[in-house]
Amino acid sequence: MRKKTITGWVWGLAVACLVGGYAHAAFAKPLKVCADPNYMPYSNKLGQGFENKVAQLVGHALGRPVQYVWSSYRQKGGFENFLALNLDKHRCDMIMNLPYGDYEETFTKPYYGSTYVFVYKKGKRYDLSEGMDSPILSHVKIGFEVGTPVEAGLKMRGLVLSAVPFNTAGSETASPKAPLQAVEDGKVDVLITWEPLVGYFIQKDFRNLTMMRVPDTDALGAPERYLFFISMGVAPGETALKHQLDQVIRTHKAQIQRIMTAYNVRILP
Q1: Cβ contacts of residue 103 below 8 Å, gap of 6+?
Q2: Mean pLDDT in order along the chain per 10 residues (269 residues)
């Protein structure tokens, strides 16, 4: 009889601890993440973007449920206005997309790095080994995203006036699929764009296209940068959270890499 009583007490204690653990997770302070509600492959309200997946990983690692504050990256005033109206005003604790080294915001260690890429149809034998200085670029129709280092690089080479501009980062309804469709339809021969923006769609919807990375260059005397590292941004004064996020990034590199690989982003060391 005593054995049964002790066993029952132990079992009851185990159940109480389990329930208490769930209650703790349920009542933990939410991790508020400002994110775009409709900008795949970054994020959307269905949680399908790679930033959604990394945010959930972070929340799980910190034992805090993720709560989104939806706001477009591409609202009037652009990404800077998104930061000013959301992160800077403490509407959220963090964002998932901040260039490492941003001089106005508090940023974590980078959690991925990537480059701009040349996108073109498989089977095309374009020699792009010299990057932006490849002679073939003077003989093909180029597409590019406005307001990027690529636009500046094309201007330096006198190629921008004959190129086709796209502005998927400037409109809440635009999709990165549009410039890819232009390559598919033959309206553009070589698209130069940010790999994380298009890798997912190339893998999913445009398997006839391929990518090649654009190397950094200083061939014309001025350094040009086409490789960038991306951090998480934290609200002003949230130093403790920044250190916690740095720890998560350090200890979950493999999981983050698996997420990025699934979205066809070849993460840099």
Answers
A1: none
A2: 45 47 64 97 98 98 98 92 96 96 93 96 95 97 96 96 94 92 98 97 97 84 87 96 98 97 89
The values of phi and psi at residue 222, to 5°, are -110, 130
- Considering the entire predicted model, what is its pTM? 0.87
Burial of 120 (0-12, 13-18, 19+ CB in 10 A): buried
d(CA 87, CA 85): 7
Residues 128, 206 within the same domain: yes
Domain count for the chain:
2
For residue 11, is it within any domain?
no
Residue 138 lies in a domain: yes
CATH number at residue 190: 3.40.190.10
Q: Is the dihedral of CA 87, 91, 92, 97 positive or negative?
A: negative
